[in-house]
Design brief:
The protein is α/β, with parallel strands linked by helices. It has 2 domains: 171 residues, 3-Layer(aba) Sandwich (D-Maltodextrin-Binding Protein, domain 2), CATH 3.40.190; 136 residues, Periplasmic binding protein-like II (D-Maltodextrin-Binding Protein, domain 2, 3-Layer(aba) Sandwich). The protein has 12 helices and 10 strands. Strands 1, 2, 3, 4, 5, 6, 7, 8, 9 and 10 form a 10-stranded mixed beta sheet that branches. Helix 2 links the parallel strand 1 and strand 2. Helix 9 crosses helix 10. Keywords: Signal. This is TAXI family TRAP transporter solute-binding subunit.
Length: 344
């Protein structure tokens, strides 16, 4: 009798646990966030956001994946293998409109939606001090790292070189792979220069400056004018002297905006919960716990739509309306998303 009662209690307990587990799984949405190389800033940013979300217990779970960065993440969102991704604002524009980058020709990412602009990404052109590279034109005939395959850095290298009538064919060798590997090649004099589009203080660039005699190539006002004639989304930016070891003078370059994008297939409720958790209820943790010094320096909710290049997700619209942020009409989601117009 006692054994039968014990078995019934055990069965009931196991059944309750299973039911509870199934209910939890059914009520929890899972989000994969595409980032970039582990030596860049996309990866720690995505990891930090995922950790904050997971610890908040709001019915959302997230994990961050190291990827080839912007272009890869946009394609992954289009294919449905990721729900969110870090990317440059110009790459988001290209992806959504099916233009500008070979990867998006006849491959428009129609389900790509904007969430938030995070921080400026300066285009760093690093060169060995003994390579005789003082301008973009001097890259001709050199071994140059141009970014990982499918990354925003690769596209920036193409754009900048193209503004000076250079192509990858004009280089002695076009080197690809991760930025971390490129740092080792620069240190060991296996490449003469490298492009890197990233926020200030990147660990990869700090390492390069600590382990090799490097310079950071400036883009002069005249060169900048030529570049902006073709690519208006590049804006002037100054890398302050002292940002990197051995680079004591200010460096003039151009910048883009690092942003977070999502799939339109995520529900409005889930995206609103995500936005409100990270950028409102847990904003202090976002500033303090995410390992990216640019967030505390450059990010505010009020300026989070500056540089946004694609329509927003309906859940992001709801969040920004609540925060009193004016939403330009061109950033409203397509009617097919079921979003309501911004309140007057």
């Amino acid at each position: 009798m006692c054994n039968k009662l014990a078995k019934r209690i055990l069965a009931a307990t196991l059944g309750l646990a299973l039911t509870t587990s199934m209910a939890w799984a059914q009520s929890t949405s899972f989000i994969t966030i595409g980032s970039g190389s582990t030596s860049g800033l996309y990866y720690p940013t995505a990891v930090g956001i995922a950790n904050i979300l997971n610890n908040a217990d709001v019915g959302l779970r997230a994990n961050a994946r190291s990827t080839g960065a912007s272009v890869f993440n946009a394609n992954a969102i289009g294919e449905g293998s990721m729900q969110m991704g870090m990317m440059q604002n110009n790459i988001a524009y290209y992806a959504y409109n099916g233009t500008g980058v070979e990867a998006f020709e006849n491959n428009q990412i129609e389900n790509l939606r904007g969430l938030v602009g995070l921080y400026p990404e300066a285009i760093h052109i690093l060169a060995r001090a003994d390579a005789g590279i003082e301008s973009v034109a001097d890259l001709a005939g050199k071994r140059v790292y141009v970014g990982d395959v499918g990354s925003g850095t690769e596209q920036d290298a193409k754009n900048i070189m193209g503004a000076f009538d250079l192509t990858f064919d004009d280089l002695q060798a076009t080197v690809r792979g991760s930025s971390g590997n490129a740092v080792g090649l620069l240190r060991d004099d296996q490449i003469a220069a490298m492009f890197y589009t990233v926020g200030l203080g990147s660990s990869a660039i700090v390492e390069a400056a600590q382990t090799a005699p490097i310079t950071v190539v400036s883009i002069s006002e005249e060169e900048l004018g030529q570049l902006q004639e073709e690519y208006a989304f590049y804006t002037p930016f100054t890398i302050p002297g002292g940002t990197y070891p051995g680079v004591d003078e200010d460096v003039q370059t151009v910048t883009l905006k690092a942003m977070l994008a999502a799939s339109s297939e995520l529900s409005e409720d889930d995206v609103y919960t995500f936005m409100n958790t990270i950028f409102n209820e847990k904003l202090e943790a976002f500033y303090n716990d995410v390992q990216n010094p640019n967030l505390d320096k450059y990010f505010t909710v009020k300026s989070a739509l500056e540089g946004m290049s694609i329509p927003l997700h309906a859940g992001a619209v709801k969040f920004f309306e609540e925060q009193g942020v004016e939403i330009p009409s061109e950033l409203m989601p397509p009617e097919s998303d079921g979003a309501q117009p911004a309140s007057e």
